[in-house]
Design brief:
mainly alpha; about 55% helix; about 0% strand
């Protein structure tokens, strides 16, 4: 019976982890490079009231 080659198995696991990490980073950078769609509701800011506009008590 042949002896298991643990260093080969470890190398394969490390390569799989590295590939997965690179894919995740690539997806993350591709998502940020594009302009995300802007929602008009998020862009509107309600007007601020000043002390002059507030009714006196």
């Amino acid at each position: 019976m042949a002896k298991p080659n643990y260093s080969f198995a470890k190398r394969q696991r490390d390569l799989a982890k590295k590939q997965k990490k690179e894919d995740k980073l690539r997806r993350k950078t591709e998502g940020t490079s594009e302009n995300p769609p802007q929602d008009d509701a998020l862009q509107e800011v309600p007007p601020q009231t000043t002390d002059d506009e507030k009714p006196a008590d």
